[in-house]
Design a protein that fits this description.
Layout lengths: L4 H15 L32 H4 L4 E2 L5 E2 L1 H7 L2 H5 L7 E2 L5 E5 L2 E6 L4 E4 L2 H7 L3 H5 L16 H9 L5 H8 L12 H8 L7 E3 L2 E5 L4 E5 L12 E3 L2 H7 L51 E2 L4 E2 L3 E3 L7 E3 L4 E6 L8 H14 L4 H7 L4 E4 L5 E5 L13 E2 L4 E4 L12 E7 L2 E2 L6 H11 L3
Antiparallel strand pairs: 1-2, 3-4, 4-5, 5-6, 7-8, 8-9, 9-10, 11-12, 13-20, 14-19, 15-16, 15-18, 16-17, 17-20, 20-21
This protein binds zinc ion.
Length: about 450
């Protein structure tokens, strides 16, 4: 094999840019961007802390005021593990469909199916005349005709026949995320990646095969700093679209892109079906100070959560529903009691609690986003399981922390849990028996 070394280096630089993503200024930095779909292979080390207004809102409306649930479908596809973080906000694109770009791909909202499906991002690149540019990055040109003349079954058979590299084929067929997908088959692979649009092709230290929605790359040489020999990684399709200006610029300027709107009009009720965060401990229905809406004079603010007292330090605090971890303060460092007093004084003088101070008053936190964009936040935690990571999918009842008093001036532990939907916390604007009824309903009590 003769490869001119500078040419190989060019590939490496180009591919390195795709695999090791440098976050744009508007986006919270991501320390290590994973290639497409290897959830079990690497640890996600990320530190974005979504702002409440971004994290709490997920669904938006199409032109006919129908709810678009790109965000909950993103979670359904495996979310962070599968598609990477969002790289912009939703946009209206080809065919009048609504799209959301993520680092590794793009979801298209299909109103006819009432669900999101991965878009043919690599076909878009082909249609934009970018095959030459992709070849310079080690991505094969798309084969223009598979001889099927529009016969999908024939195209399927022919193109699956192009899976001639055993490692790439195995990766294509593998269940990408068994914790999310209980079963898997070739049709699901096709839905996620599309059909092959090229045969495997050797480019210097790797072999790449192109699909409609991804390119898979098998490393066949050992190259320092690059994926290990024998590993198959994916090319970040969303990043490519961004690089070539295929995602509208105004859709890229919104940080994490968790942008949306008002509650759904599809009859969805956000305030039902929660587990008690501490087993056997009911909300203190007879103590309004422990419920949402209670005044918090020490910071001239309002309580946004539900307090569960009578628990020891490190009592297991459980996820109230299944969902995706969107914040986990693994590296929390507390504040001194002096700092706490100063913050309290400032709030009282201001007459309100600035959001950044409120965040400090909540102490060590975990946030989980559930289907439909309901978010639960767990505050004042004394501990967090060391293996709990941003992007993890947790089951209802899974322990996500230990009760504590971080961020407070107290010396007794309690669990503080907030439930958010569409920018509002549970019971917001309610009081008395109405508030109690809402919370009872939420926990089935
Ligand atoms: Zn509280």
């Amino acid at each position: 094999m003769l490869f001119h070394s500078s040419r190989v280096r060019l590939f490496l630089v180009a591919i390195g840019c795709l695999l090791i993503t440098s976050a744009p200024a508007a986006m919270t930095p991501i320390a290590s961007a994973k290639p497409w779909l290897p959830p079990a292979e690497e640890d996600v080390q990320v530190t974005p802390v979504p702002q409440p207004s971004q994290a709490a809102i997920v669904s938006s409306k199409d032109f006919a005021s129908r709810t678009i649930r790109l965000w909950s479908d993103y979670l359904g596809f495996g979310g962070f593990d599968t598609l990477g973080p969002p790289i912009g906000k939703q946009f209206e694109g080809r065919g009048g469909f609504y799209y959301q770009a993520y680092q590794r791909g793009v979801l298209q909202w299909r109103p006819d199916q009432q669900r999101a499906i991965p878009a043919n991002t690599f076909d878009w690149l082909n249609e934009a005349g970018l095959d030459e540019a992709l070849a310079a990055k080690g991505i094969p040109n798309a084969i223009t005709s598979d001889g099927s003349h529009g016969d999908w079954l024939k195209a399927r058979e022919t193109r699956l026949g192009w899976l001639t590299n055993p490692e790439i084929k195995a990766r294509f067929l593998a269940n990408p995320n068994p914790s999310v997908y209980k079963t898997w088959n070739v049709d699901k692979s096709i839905e996620l990646y599309g059909l092959p649009s090229s045969r495997p092709e050797r480019f210097g230290p790797f072999i790449t095969q192109r699909f409609q929605r991804i390119a898979l790359q098998l490393w066949v040489s050992d190259v320092p700093q690059m994926p290990a020999k024998g590993s198959v990684v994916g090319i970040l399709g969303g990043e490519l679209l961004k690089e070539y200006g295929i995602i509208p610029a105004d859709a890229l300027d919104n940080g994490l892109g968790w942008e949306g709107s008002s509650p759904g009009d599809d009859g969805f009720d956000p305030w039902v079906g929660f587990l008690l965060p501490v087993a056997g401990v009911q909300p203190a229905y007879d103590m309004p100070s422990r419920l949402p809406g209670a005044p918090r004079d020490y910071r001239a603010g309002i309580h946004e959560g539900i307090d569960f007292y009578g628990v020891p330090y490190d009592a297991p605090v459980r996820a109230v529903k299944e969902g995706r971890v969107i914040r986990v303060d693994q590296n929390y460092t507390g504040i001194s009691s002096q700092q706490w007093s100063i913050m309290s004084e400032v709030c009282v003088k201001l007459g309100y609690t600035p959001p950044d101070m409120l965040d400090i008053f909540r102490g060590r936190q975990v946030w989980i986003e559930h289907f439909h964009g309901v978010v639960s936040r767990y505050a004042h935690l004394n501990s967090i399981p060391p293996d709990l990571r941003l992007g993890d999918w947790v089951q209802a009842g899974q322990v996500i922390g230990g009760a504590g008093s971080t961020g407070t001036d107290e010396t007794v532990a309690h669990a503080h849990v907030e439930l958010w939907y569409a920018g509002k916390y549970i019971g917001q604007g309610q009081s008395g028996s109405q508030l109690i009824a809402t919370i009872r309903r939420a926990f089935g009590g």
